[in-house]
Amino acid sequence: MNNPPDVTQDPKEYEEYAHGVHQHVKRYIMVGITLLAFTGITVALSYVDFGTRKANIGVAMLVATLKAGLVAAIFMHLAAEKRLIYRVLIFTGFFVLGLFWLTFLAWYNPVVR
Amino acid sequence: MEIPYTISTRPDTGLWNAKIGIWLFLASEVMLFGGLFSAYVFLRLDAGPGEWPHGLLNVPVGTMNTAILIMSSVTVVLAWAALKMRKYRAYWWYMLATIICGVIFLFVKLYYEWPQKFEHFGAFIKPEAREKYEQYLGNHRREEKGLEPRIEITGHLENREALKDPNAKEYEIGLDPVNAEPNNPFNDRPHFLYVPPTDHIAKIEKEDVERIDSFGPWHSAYFASYFTITGLHGAHVLGGVLVFLYMWLPVSKKVYQRNPEHLANRVEVSGLFWHFVDLIWIFVFPLFYLL
Fold this sequence. Notes:
The complex is a heterodimer.
Chain A lengths: L10 H36 L6 H23 L7 H26 L5
Helix pairs in contact in A: 1-2
Chain B lengths: L16 H30 L12 H26 L3 H31 L2 E5 L8 H4 L1 H6 L7 E6 L12 E6 L1 H4 L20 E5 L3 E6 L6 H28 L1 H9 L1 H31 L1
Antiparallel strand pairs in B: 1-2, 1-5, 2-3, 3-4
Helix pairs in contact in B: 1-7, 1-9, 2-3, 2-9, 3-7, 7-9, 8-9
């Protein structure tokens, strides 16, 4: 489980609950440090020549996607969410991919000035 | 009338209502930023050789702002966890840290990064006149090395009045290092640290210039997309800061005293928005600052 459980109303169980949240706090801090490290890596990699600019863009976007994935999975609790939220996001993903696909098509039929 | 399911979960969805609300909103935000990012891709793919600039933004400042936004994402999630543990005092401090991070981010953007652009000029040289300014463009060497040509001369415009004066025959530009020493291999790649314009002043005849203006949104497709995307992102940061300010003020303590879970849920929802804004920046930073 990714999310701390809802708070218990029973004071006896509360101590155990607080301990559970405390574990999550550690994880949030670790993810934060990882994200900061990845930011440094992104900057460093941009000064490495991967041959073509396209390759450099690819590498940077890969790292950015990893970082975004961490934010979404841990900070936004998407690693363990209710089904309805996934359904909403699947729809969104479908349409946003469609949007980028249209842009991709334009690459094969470029605007001529 | 009391709004239902702000604290307890609705049996059919398994969620409290605000959580569904914020995710629907974020879904629409994905489409909004998705449209702008696909415009960026479109413009960039369509840019001719030398038209898409590199290394114009200050990388250490951008990196610092990225780190600030990441840290604020951590503090907001810690603020929420503190509420879950019923530690209001800790919550108060984490929230304050988040607000300060957001304000620093905006301050750097609005008072440091953006205004500099409006003081920095670039003159696009007409293709037929580029040979004349070879000493500033260094295109012979670039062609040999298979690099994209330079098509503009940038720096500090010393005689700004020449922009409007029809009798002025030339522009005097305090050159950026890349134009002052165009054949120095050091200038082939973007610099990590910011390098200010040099003392070297170039005189560029007006009739050789296709277009000259400051690095505002009007300057190029790059700056148009830069200002649009970072501007909209900045507006989101401002919105987040205002919401957090409300959650931090004493008025929200009353909500906490009535039902701590209610405030925790509010913080969770606004935190989700904040993480999304952070997530967008994770893509904006490399696209505009590094690549």
